[in-house]
Write a structure and sequence with these properties.
The chain is mainly alpha-helical. The protein contains 17 helices and three strands. A three-stranded antiparallel sheet has the order 2-1-3. A hairpin with a 5-residue loop joins β1 and β2. α2 crosses α3, α3 (about 80-90) packs antiparallel against α4 (about 95-110) and α12 packs antiparallel against α17 (about 345-400). It is elongated, with a radius of gyration of 30 Å.
Length: about 400
């Protein structure tokens, strides 16, 4: 039976946790054996599962702090259960606190530490779970949490740099869409109506633009609803179906510059994941299968599955299996083959990860440097077209008097 206790130790510090015991007497004996003075010992109704509902969202920052704190506490000699109890007190965010309570529940029941992470693999990812599982089995939790923390920081920095580079083009695009929408939907139909009502026949160029404006103004609700449905459907197909995601990826991976960013990001994730998992001691086939689920590009995912299950499983070396796949750059496959023979594959993979992270950053900046003038020119051309369609008939009208 599960009991929840609150007790104080010899120094007067209050501790709180759950324990498994046959009855209340056994629970009290357990506390006495650990020199704990009970304040409250109450039976807890057994749950059908130890998995708790995580309210809210655990983000990258939460995971960085969680791994850093756990690594620090384990380094100074704190046992795992005590470290979790300390973190439960320190963390105020409900999602993290509920997760830590689940970890404590699992530990007091004698379940493995990694089980709570495995219950929320959609939050932490397969790589994170596999690293914790391997570290728990090998007794290297402290070092693994330190490496996980550094890896998460690098990942967050890369995402932050990409987002920062894309902010200005996105703001510019939103402003352009807002201005042009206002001119086409509200201003242009009113001006066009003036010419129609007065019986003045503007030039054909202006009539085309006025016709577009009048059509959009008369059907704005239908067009707006159609656009919203299209966006919702596209998002659902991408995030909710494998076919939709595959289709979007196919389009993006055939778009110049964007294709390079996608591939470089996939190689960066592959190299980083493989390096971390190999350092943790996971078997190479399992390592590559886990990496296949994290690269984020289906073309690479299928390739890695073939490498693991059709190459390595049949006795090929890592270098030979990678060289059979043509989608990887030659420099990557050659470095993998050479470093495998030299015996320092993990270090070379981490170097590759850093190299491609810097490369992605540079490629995104190049893309943004092309997008900014292209957006400005497009917006200028559209606004200029609308302005000319209004100015020309007005000018013709004034010259008649």
């Amino acid at each position: 039976m599960l009991y929840h206790y609150i007790a104080s130790d010899k120094t007067g510090k209050v501790v709180e946790a759950d324990i498994e015991a046959n009855d209340l007497t056994s629970a009290l004996q357990y506390l006495s054996g650990r020199e704990l003075r009970p304040v409250s010992v109450k039976p807890v109704q057994e749950r059908a599962t130890s998995r708790r509902k995580i309210f809210g969202r655990i983000n990258v920052t939460d995971k960085v702090f969680l791994t850093k704190y756990l690594a620090l506490m384990l380094r100074v000699g704190t046992d795992l259960l005590s470290a979790i109890n300390i973190l439960i007190v320190d963390f105020d965010k409900p999602a993290v606190r509920n997760f830590l309570l689940e970890v404590r529940d699992n530990l007091t029941r004698g379940q493995p530490f990694y089980k709570a992470f495995e219950n929320h693999v959609e939050v932490f990812g397969r790589t994170f779970v596999s690293l914790v599982k391997a570290a728990e089995a090998s007794g290297n939790l402290q070092r693994t949490f330190e490496e996980l923390s550094e890896s998460l920081v690098r990942e967050a920095e890369l995402k932050s740099r990409i987002k920062a580079a894309l902010i200005y083009p996105l703001v510019l695009l939103c402003v352009a869409v807002a201005i042009i929408s206002f001119l086409v939907v509200f201003a242009l139909p009113r001006i066009a109506k003036v010419f129609v009502d007065t019986g003045i026949k503007p030039p054909i160029f202006s009539r085309i633009v006025f016709g577009i404006g009048l059509f959009l103004g008369d059907h704005i609700l239908i067009i707006g609803a159609a656009v919203a449905i299209f966006i919702f459907t596209a998002l659902y197909l991408y995030f909710g179906t494998r076919i939709g995601k595959s289709l979007v990826e196919r389009v993006l991976t055939h778009t110049p510059l964007v294709r390079e960013i996608y591939k470089e990001l996939a190689i960066q994730r592959l190299a980083s994941t493989m390096s971390s998992l190999m350092k943790a001691g996971l078997p190479i086939i399992e390592t590559i299968n886990v990496a296949a689920d994290t690269v984020g590009l289906q073309e690479f995912e299928f390739s890695l599955k073939r490498i693991a299950n059709e190459g390595l499983a049949k006795g090929l070396t890592i270098g030979e299996a990678f060289r059979r796949e043509t989608i990887y750059p030659k420099v990557v496959t050659n470095l993998i083959a050479i470093s495998e023979k030299a015996g320092h594959l993990e270090d070379v993979l981490m170097t590759l990860s850093d190299f491609y992270a810097a490369n992605v950053d540079a490629t995104v900046k190049s893309l943004v440097s092309l997008l900014e003038p292209a957006l400005l020119l497009t917006m200028g051309a559209l606004v200029g077209t609308i302005a000319l369609s209004i100015i020309i008939p007005i000018y013709q009208l004034t010259t008649q008097f």
